User: What shape does this take?
Amino acid sequence: MPDIFGVIADATRRDILQVLLERVQRDAEISVSEIVGQLEISQPTVSKHLKVLREAELVTVREEGQHRYYSLNAEPLEMIEDFIIPFLSAGFDTEVTVEYLSESGERIPGPGDQDAFANLDEEVLPEEAAAAAERMGRAAARAENRVKELVARFRLRE
Assistant: This one.
């Protein structure tokens, strides 16, 4: 597999990826001629860059007769994301606080409010529900970490 950083270093390939990303959001493929029309570059140039993107597995192609339809495969870009995120979040305080509010807007105790449940003599949740809540808590913590990473990335763009 080609070096992913070298593949996306080319501005034309990044433009093609951007066009493909717009199609992903509409859940649609795009033909070479449509890419040529949008980017206003020659068909041979687009085809050459699509070949590089195919070899890097950043695009998939579906052939229908003489036509080829391309779609984005963003999975290889995760390697870049994994490499860059520590740099983007370095030096940023991305602490996220969560408050639980009632429908009327009043603050109510949440999972982190240990003292709110200290005076209860009875079991708050049955054992199965407590185990499920613990799993959900772990999933929420993973999601919180992901949000922190995204907030750090967003702050760099401001």
User: Anything to note?
Assistant: The beta strands are 30-31, 59-64, 67-72, 100-101, 107-108. Residues 56 and 108 are 50 Å apart (CA to CA). The first helix runs from residue 4 to 8. The mean pLDDT is 81.
